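Quarterly update from the structural biology core.
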Amino acid sequence: MRFTNAWGNIGVGNLEFFPIIPGVDVPETETQDSLQRLCDENENLVWAEVVSEFEYHAAHNPWYIADIGEFAVRESTPNVSGDIVTLPDGVTASSIKVGFCIIDVYKINGDNSPTSQRVYWDCEVTEQGIQSRWINYQSTEGNEVPITNLTPGEYYLTNEWNPTGIFIDDVTNNQS
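Predicted structure, tokenized:
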């Protein structure tokens, strides 16, 4: 099953990720440490720490931040804490893709804003993030969950931002 997804920043400050590049001639196949920065509403730095990695994905040519999200098919309840479905062949019905390029795409009020209003708009090895009151939208190859041979029943596709808890954010709204 393929799908699209959106994550919004409803906080007062921007969510930012910066690569820590160890040298000038780093091959595209390398990973780079990812530094998360949190800023307040006046763009003052409040906190910064290495939390993840940037990973290069040749299929799309961007750098993705690892372990950003998890998608899963769960059984019989819309509650995210329900069990992830295991298919007859033993495969878990969860996302194969957990890293994403995190950039501004839409304002939360629904406007598709021009690049000139975006702070984060590039998936190269530069800063990535989501401005306060903006949405990141994902609809790329790999946004999928295997459901082949799923037995008839009632299921829910769930989305969890920051499933491993490595990023600093408000965890009360990470699941849907």
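The CA atoms of residues 106 and 112 lie 5 Å apart.
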